[in-house]
Design a protein that fits this description.
The complex is a heterodimer. Chain A is mainly alpha-helical. Chain A folds into two domains: 39 residues, no CATH class; 194 residues, MetI-like fold (Orthogonal Bundle), CATH 1.10.3720. Chain A contains ten helices and no strands. The model of chain A has no long low-confidence stretch (mean pLDDT 92). Chain B folds into two domains: 163 residues, 3-Layer(aba) Sandwich (Rossmann fold); 64 residues, no CATH class. In chain B, strand 8 and strand 9 form a beta hairpin. Chain B is α/β, with parallel strands linked by helices. Chain B is globular. In chain B, helix 7 crosses helix 8. Chain B is built from eight helices and nine strands. In chain B, the strands form two sheets. In chain B, strands 5-6-7-3-8-9 form a six-stranded mixed β-sheet, with helices on both faces. Chain B has a three-stranded antiparallel β-sheet with strand order 2-1-4, with no helix packed on it. The chains are: A mainly alpha, B alpha/beta. Chains A and B meet through helix 7 and helix 8 of A and strand 5 and helix 3 of B. Bound molecules: adenosine-5'-diphosphate and magnesium ion (MG). Adenosine-5'-diphosphate binds next to helix 1 of chain B. Chain B: This is ABC transporter ATP-binding protein. Chain B: It comes from Paenirhodobacter ferrireducens. Chain B: Pfam families: ABC_tran (PF00005). Chain B: Belongs to the ABC transporter superfamily. Chain B: Keywords: ATP-binding, Nucleotide-binding, Transport.
Chain lengths: 247, 237
């Protein structure tokens, strides 16, 4: 059981590479349309300095945007749980904002905020905001009624009930929201980089495409994927560690 | 105890439906009162009114001389991230006070939890968890204690042990115990009220002091009478 769990990811990766190479052999697509795994691996090695620099930049945007988005999402959830009338007012807005494709805002944000890190961070933060806010609010609104009765008869004020009872009880759902946000966060940063600016893995991909360096474009894609997987794994681990005792 | 008795009088409506007709329940100070009845007649609603908690319907009536209460229900509702000791002292935590260390140690000892104080609820048995809930209730040190089917999820042996412990530790307080178990009412209560759709009727409780042995003839007779009265009562919608 354990062994298969450890072997599954490398096996899937190997299968994917085989399929990729097989597709090229079967269709005869030229390397400037679809480079093979070997060519992409070579590009990763040859361009390692460019890719490392770009990856660090993207990672910085992902971390900052995730922290900002998750932090403000969690704060809003607590405010909405504490003031039901605020929740009633904001709930429709939250729902509508959830169906807006945040990626579509990237060009506007670039227009407003320029070509630096700011618009990338904001896209990432917006993407992380909603899953965190809605999952956490869900948890905060489902505090066990028996516990709330207890808190009332014990004379707990709303603030202490929130801090000692409702927030810890909702942490598992906050964890689910964070893990979901961690999946989308790197995508947000990369899309921000596509739209404007010259740094980060997204910019490397756009530039490589423009110069028909499709192998470099794929190399950047591989690095983005690795970064996204690593980020998600890191957040999942942190959530599991942090929440172990809140079961 | 010279305190005036807690008195509830009134009726509860749930939309168009009358949950219970106008009734009067007086809790004798320092004694155990049992409220016995089938599921759904409104026992928990009555208890919530006494606790000052919101109910699902509208209450027309009043509660007089309601002191602060301590609450204990079937679900021990322990917080999984706190130890048994911290759970027992939850009230102080929720009020932002420091728990009285000596009293906490004494209460844990009396509830048989002296060796389990540092364990999380997940490491305790069902009976031990219910004892933590009892310890938490005792820590509140309230004049009125409201028990809502506190032992109905326990197996027979554990239930008897918990009844004995609760009777001993809550002696002298005004206690209302809601139950659907005639044996429990017969063992523990000084006064027994039967609650049906048509209202409250007082039944005769055994005269000897609680907790009474389960096989005591007076307890068995009372239990039998209560069971008969329960089955005579019209079934709830
Ligand atoms: N919050 C609520 N909203 C609507 N109906 C409720 C609510 N709480 C209780 N009821 C209804 O009131 C009736 C009595 O409930 P309850 O007091 O819990 O009865 P008991 O404790 O005797 O089983 C039940 O029919 C239940 O469905
Ligand atoms: Mg009930």
């Amino acid at each position: 059981m354990r062994l298969t769990r450890f072997l599954a990811p490398p096996a899937i990766a190997a299968g994917f590479v085989l399929l990729w190479q097989g597709l090229i052999l079967a269709t005869g697509l030229p390397p400037f349309l679809l480079p093979g795994p070997g060519a992409v691996a070579a590009a990763v090695i040859a361009q390692r300095e460019v890719l490392t620099g770009a990856a660090l930049r993207t990672l910085a945007e992902v971390l900052t945007g995730f922290a900002l988005g998750a932090g403000s999402g969690a704060t809003l959830a607590i405010a909405m749980a504490a003031w039901p009338r605020l929740a009633a007012t904001l709930r429709p807005a939250l729902l509508i904002s959830q169906v807006i494709p945040t990626f579509a805002l990237a060009p506007v944000l670039t227009l407003w905020l320029g070509y630096g890190m700011a618009p990338k961070i904001v896209v990432t933060a917006l993407i992380c905001f909603f899953p965190v806010a809605s999952a956490f609010l869900d948890g905060l609104e489902r505090t066990s009624p028996v516990c709330r009765d207890l808190a009332r008869t014990m004379g707990a004020g709303p603030a202490r009930e929130m801090w000692h009872l409702r927030i810890p009880m909702a942490l598992p759902l906050l964890g689910s929201g964070l893990k979901l946000a961690a999946i989308y966060a790197p995508v947000g940063a990369v899309i921000g980089e596509w739209v404007g600016g010259s740094e980060g893995l997204g910019a490397v991909m756009i530039h490589a495409n423009g110069r028909m360096r499709i192998d470099l474009s794929f190399a950047a894609l591989v690095v983005v994927t690795a970064l996204a997987l690593a980020f998600h794994a890191g957040i999942s681990l942190a959530v599991r560690r942090g929440l172990a005792r809140f079961g | 105890m010279t305190a005036a008795p807690v008195l509830l009088s009134g009726t509860v409506r749930m939309g168009a439906r009358t949950l219970f007709p106008p009734l009067r329940l007086e809790l004798a100070p320092g004694r155990w009162t049992a409220l016995l009845g089938p599921s759904g007649v409104g026992k928990s609603t009555l208890l919530r009114l006494l606790a000052g908690l919101p109910i699902g319907g509208t209450f027309e009536g009043r509660v007089e001389n309601r002191p602060p209460v301590a609450l204990m229900a079937q679900d021990p509702a322990l917080l999984p991230w706190l130890t048994a000791r911290q759970n027992a002292a939850l009230g102080a935590r929720l009020r932002g006070e420091a728990a009285d260390r000596d009293r906490l140690a004494a209460v844990l000892r009396r509830t048989g939890l002296a060796d389990h104080g540092d364990k999380p609820p997940a490491a305790l048995s069902g009976g031990q968890r219910q004892r933590v809930a009892l310890a938490r209730t005792l820590m509140e040190d309230r004049a009125l204690v409201l028990l809502d089917e506190p032992f109905s999820a326990l197996d027979a042996r554990m239930r008897l042990a918990m009844q004995d412990l609760a009777a001993e530790l809550l002696r002298g307080r005004t206690v209302l115990i809601v139950t659907h178990d005639p044996a429990e009412a017969a063992r523990l209560a000084d006064r027994i009220f039967l609650m049906t759709e048509t209202g409250l009727t007082e039944e005769v409780a055994p005269a000897c002091p609680a907790p009474r042995p389960p096989a005591d003839p007076a307890v068995l007779a009372c239990q039998g009478a209560l069971l008969t009265r329960l089955t005579e009562a019209p079934a709830c919608a």
